[in-house]
Amino acid sequence: MHNFLPIAYFQNRFIPFEQAQISIATHALHYGTGAFAGMRGIPDPQNPEQILLFRLDRHAQRLSNSAKFLHYDLPADKIESLIIDFVKKNTPDTSFYIRPFIYTSGLGIAPRLHKIEKDFLIYGLELGDYLSPDGINCRISSWHRQEDRSLPLRGKVSGAYITSSLAKTEAVESGFDEAILLNSQGKVCEATGMNIFIVRNEQLIAPGFDQDILEGITRDSVMTIAKDLGITTTERPVDKSELFIADEVFLCGTAAKITPVNKIENYQLSKNRPITDKIKDKLTAITENREPKYKDWVYIIQKY
Question: β-strands 136-140, 257-264: how paired?
């Protein structure tokens, strides 16, 4: 059961969440013609009068870019401004998640992006740990990640998440917590809503953008932190077999934060994860605004 924040932004105004409703004929509902972002916010542990948002500018810019695939011009600064107003009107007192969403709001039946109305909405919900911080078990999905030549994978387009949904249910119904998807070339791609990293010989390794992954903002944060910590970081294709012999494997994303992987298929991974733990601790400190070097990653909202 989700605890949704009481106020939503819908059809150019702030209204009670329960009143933000769309028609059953909404175009995006039928054709997946939407794009979204996911952001986390927390009450400032050091100042109860403040709320902290993690990398607001990057999330707004990526959503603005995603909107272009829908033939919709929505500037990043407007997205930022509306998200700030949204948080101020809700003033959550616990960890929360924000879902801004762009979609084709017209009621036509033809699959198209031209000559159809678009809209932008925001809602949120209280959210603690999306996945167990102690680690999860993963399987290799029988479903493969789409290719950029078929879908615009540089954006968080809603229609693309049918593959994630199929893979997630397949994993859970077969006794696992999460799925790892391969791309069309059989290389490791990502999980159902998270990027993936492996550690081998004290080096951090990640599939690159040429592997049809999402341009993850948490992923970018992890790579920046790792380099600042002096950890050698490489982007390259990753074979499935490397997952089973990796020293460490973890997933990362806005909802998942940094989640270690304990087991993949029937291969048990080490519980000794020095690099994962080091990066996770640093990222936590940054999101709580305890790292001055990264202060530009945290947007501070005054409650009153």
Answer: parallel
- Residue 271 annotated in active site: no
- Domains held by the chain: number: 2
Q: Which residue has the tokens 């933000």?
A: 20
Cα–Cα nearest to 194, from 217, 160, 171: 217
Task: Please state the pTM of the whole predicted model.
Answer: 0.95
Residues 69, 20, single domain; the answer is yes
Task: Give yes or no: residues 186 and 98 share one domain.
Answer: no
Cα angle vertex 16, ends 12, 17, to 5°?
90
Q: What's the CA gap between 110 and 125, in Å, rounded?
A: 33
CATH number for 82: 3.30.470.10
The answer to whether 288 and 45 are in contact (CB under 8 A) is yes
> Are residues 195 and 281 both part of a single domain?
yes
pLDDT in tens, 135-179: 999 999 999 999 999 999 999 999 999 999 999 999 999 999 999
| CA distance to 4, 52, 209, per residue, from 7 (Å) | 9, 18, 36
Among 156, 168, 257, 280, which one carries the catalytic annotation?
Answer: 156
Q: Confidence class of residue 264 from pLDDT cuts 50, 70 and 90?
A: very high
Among candidate residues 195, 212, 297, 293, the one with its CA nearest the CA of residue 252 = 195
Tokens describing residue 216: 């993850």
- Give the CATH number of the domain where residue 229 resides: 3.20.10.10
